[in-house]
Amino acid sequence: MEKYKFLKFIAIAVALLTVAGCEKENEKVAEAVSWVELDRHLLALVVPSQATLTVSMTDVTWTSSNNAVASVNNGTVTAVADGVAIITATAKDGKKTATCTVMVTSALIPVTGVTLNPSAIALKITETDNLQPVISPNNATYKVLTWSSSNSDVVSVDKNGEIRAIALGAATITGSTIDGSNISVTCEVNVIPTLVADVTIDAALELKVTEKATIHVTVTPDDANNKTLAWASSNEAVATVNQNGEVTAVAEGVADITATTTDGSNITATCEVTVVTFQLITNGDFITDDLTTSFQFTDNAIVAFTAEGGGAGGVGRALMITNEAVRENDWDCQFFIKFSPAMRLGEVYEFSMDVKSDVACSYATQSHDKPQEYLFWYGVGDINSSTAWQTYKVTLTVIQDAWGGPTVGTGAIAFNLGNTATTYYIGNVSLKRIK
């Protein structure tokens, strides 16, 4: 009796080792010919019982590694004596094979019960766990289960009952006895997402009107399954935001840009965006001597600086432009402000400057593509000047009738000074894009 138990132990050990080797062989076969497959790869029989294997191909040759243990005829396996045999189905080309490990005993102690605790598991993607079934009785001949997954794209299971979460969803893992007792046990596995724990973004941002910037955002943890954020602006008249976190400054003001998680964690983060006007004029207060970056003059305009005042506030210095004679045309003596980017249809600007002249006069303005490249007669309107400082200010929208419908954009405004022989004083020139 003791000898029999020892032999049975050896048989089971050999069987389990053979199963491992067999499955590795099948994995190689599957890589080469994925469509050659047996309906099972592990079989337990009691002498002299039989079982029939089904193969995915019809034209195969059946062989047994040990006919003294188990023989095979056209897929029907017959248990002969205690031991282990490998049944092989070989395709006609001799290269495509599939195998089944057959364990044979002459005195079966069947499995009477299988329990699994827990019977439900929650995993995150890439996490693993080992199912530990309790099989009774303790002396059952084949305390082995075959494992399967109802959805291997979501949860996979190997021959040892190790499960791995692959994708979000649910799958039922089933362990079945191989000794004919037809007992099975199941475990429900739910693959749950790794939720976002925190979102950090730029605390504040300052943009000029029309400028764009993408808010820098960090979502943690790194393995969160859904890092998508929903973006919103508290004031789209000031700043808009797209779903990539790119902010566009629309008009002067303040707007809160909020990013909210979409994975159910309901985490938000906010960036305060301050939009300031886009000043297109450099040295409009004439603090420096730079008269080339934003200004240009015709040759007959005599240009100098004065410190007797800088505009209506009477502070700083101003620009003096002298026209020594009355010209045939008012545009025969001009000064220009030039700027980039150019004005385009539909945009809104605010223009202002402090003006004074030795005699009361009025001068017209024009829109130009570039200085001396005329587009339309109307620039920022007619400017009335007197011997006292005053501020001329206008808000303008670039429209077809007022600006000639520039396709390339208005990049300069001309001031026509040829009508009056006098000295003109200019200070605090400003052109801002406000929408």
Provide a short characterization of the protein structure:
The chain contains 2 helices and 38 strands. It has helices at 2-32, 400-403; strands at 42-46, 50-52, 60-64, 70-73, 76-79, 83-91, 97-105, 113-116, 120-124, 128-130, 133-136, 145-149, 155-157, 162-165, 169-177, 184-192, 198-201, 204-208, 212-214, 217-220, 229-233, 239-241, 246-249, 253-261, 268-276, 278-279, 295-297, 302-306, 318-323, 334-343, 348-357, 361-363, 365-368, 374-376, 383-385, 390-397, 410-416, 422-433.
Give an overview of the whole structure.
The chain is mainly beta and 435 residues long. 8% of the residues lie in helices and 48% in strands. The protein contains 2 helices and 38 strands. Strands 26, 28, 29, 31, 36 and 38 form a 6-stranded antiparallel beta sheet that branches. A hairpin with a 4-residue loop joins strand 13 and strand 14 (162-165). The model is unreliable at 1-34 (pLDDT under 50).
- Estimate what percentage of residues fall within beta strands: over 45%
- Class per helix and strand makeup: mainly beta
Counted by DSSP, the helix tally is: 2
Main sheet record: 6 strands, antiparallel
Distance between the termini: 98 Å
Helix content estimate = under 10%
Total number of β-strand segments?
38
* Unreliable parts: 1-34
Estimate the mean pLDDT confidence. Answer: 88
Radius of gyration: 44 Å
Shape: rod-shaped
